[in-house]
């Protein structure tokens, strides 16, 4: 069932040796089989809002954008063969410094669009490619200075690394994602038991979701699950079981999905974190719409964890 998670299927090969050969990367950039995935201020290039498709560029349009890009990062190959000229290479580029009218001739009818609005309506492979491009460019944008000495850093090895420009430092930064745990807390009971879901202050009306939070330093994933559930709802859990993970580039998290078993039932929410939290019987979640309950967005692992639980007897 993990195959059905959104943003996990670029289909690209990202072997480290691809990134190491800068001469090969430069040549690849101008190969007719190369595709460019542009990112503008965290937005992706998409055609049509109703039935959206990801737009990648090649040929003249790609060349025009490459000339004005502030960052170029290799994403991977659509086949495993490093030397095969018929395999396509994919590069993400950052064109955030450009005004849209100056880019318009290269974009056709496509528009820079928030992936969160269209990702769930796209083919999985296309959505995953845009998510990867967005995540890679976000990392570059937010690591332009060395964390060690504060000098500027530059992208090397096809964007795989950023290296400090200060010769006395030379510190290298590698791409990072922020681990966050997301957990569906359940308890046994009649008709399949119940799950614990909460809503925070900016959820749309009627929406509840599984709990989530970032992992702290010095903490295992299981400890993070136990701590976050207790902090947000006052519920104690054990039997923390890993289920699946999902890259979530909004902006830069890796969501680690868990199931946990409640060993207490009385909810005591932290009002700073949540507006409400409740136990929802499985029968109610199964007929969410009829019950006036709105579940999380369908492209999220939160939704996947709920569906996974519903699919059990
Ligand atoms: Zn430095």
What is the strand and helix layout of this fold?
Blueprint: H1 16-20, H2 22-29, E1 35-40, E2 43-47, E3 53-54, H3 59-68, E4 71-77, E5 89-94, H4 100-107, E6 111-113, H5 115-118, H6 124-141, E7 153-156, E8 161-164, E9 172-173, E10 178-187, E11 194-199, E12 211-214, H7 221-233, E13 237-248, E14 253-262, E15 276-281, H8 282-286, H9 301-310
Parallel strand pairs: 1-5, 10-14
Antiparallel strand pairs: 1-2, 2-3, 2-6, 4-5, 7-8, 8-9, 10-11, 10-12, 11-15, 13-14
Zinc ion (ZN) binds at residues 146, 148-149, 151, 164, 166, 169, 171.
| Annotation, overall tally of beta strands | 15
Distance between the termini: 16 Å
Roughly what percent helix? Answer: 25-40%
Please state the CA-atom Rg, rounded to the nearest Å. 22 Å
Number of helical elements: 9
For the record, the count of structural domains works out to 3
Overall, the morphology is globular
- Strand percentage: 25-35%
For the largest beta-sheet, the strand count, sense and barrel status come to: 6 strands, mixed
Topology as H/E string? HHEEEHEEHEHHEEEEEEHEEEHH
Bound molecules: zinc ion
Structural class: alpha+beta
- Ranges where pLDDT stays below 50 over 5 or more residues in a row are none
Average pLDDT level = 94
CATH architecture of the largest domain, by name, is Alpha-Beta Complex
CATH class of the largest domain equals Alpha Beta
CATH topology of the largest domain: Nucleoside Triphosphate Pyrophosphohydrolase
